[in-house]
Amino acid sequence: MTYRFSPSQLGSAFALIAFATAMSALPQPAQAQAPATSQPASPAARNGHVDVAGAAIHYQVHGDLTSGRTPLLVLHGAFMSADAMKPLVDPFVAGRPVIAIDARGHGRSGGVDGPLSYDRMADDAAAVLAKLGVKQADVLGYSMGASTAVALAVRHPDKVGKQVILSGTSNLGGWYPEVLAGIAQITPTMFAGSPMEAEYKRLSPAPAKFAKLIDNIKALDATPFGWPDAAIRAIPGKTMVIIGDADGVTLDHAIALFKLRGGGDVAAATQGFLTAAPKARLAILPATSHIGIMTEAPAVAAMVTAFLDDKVPPMPAGF
User: pLDDT tens digits for 61-85?
Assistant: First the structure.
């Protein structure tokens, strides 16, 4: 299959393009399998919609929301869907209920014609939690979904427990300027015939409006957003920040966000060991790009599980 991306476009716009191809590159079992653009929801998942501000927001529920375990809300990246987050849904289902949302204008959700904003998508997520009777959930957001997770924690702090910010930012300046410049140049022609375009048409209630979604994403990533440092510090739950060392998110931004959320505690650092689960955790995955972080789902899931379970790092033998 031929993709209409120049090397410079691939270098700068990787944050938003060819996700379906990246999903096809996930590690496969020993038996050869045909690549897939995304994988369908588990047969055990319960699906539904909630009407919010002119859009029907689609959700999947995996597991029992009455189990007493805090649910994990999973928010996908731009041009993706809840189905595409399967590698970061399945590892958690055995231990806790999981809710996965198709963001406004994405996947099976409506709202294609309206503009996108992180505040709007955060309110959509809050409405889904309310519809499901969930008083509080932990949240894992990837890329666009990570910024939505920050907005959700700021706007609806009572609904959010722990947050996992995976390859995402708390303001537009957290991206390399070259990435944003590349996003501004993407066109529907670049996606023509791609698995991503096909997946959109398969899932969307408005299959002919992929070009409109592209316009909405470009506008979202050309509009400054962010929250004051005081608002970020005031988020009550614990936070884990995860990026790749070759991510579109800058290392400086990830470290700054980690510190705003309580990371970098000098007392803990100088004693040489941790006696309690920290308020913030930071992981920078080696040789990992923004899209490539999706191929690291097993490692991400292991780190996130320890975080969600408030696991205290063990002392090594002999100390």
Answer: 999 999 999 999 999 999 999 999 9
What is the pTM (predicted TM-score) of this model? Answer: 0.88
Assigned token pair, 23: 């999903």
Separation CA 206–CA 212 (nearest Å): 10
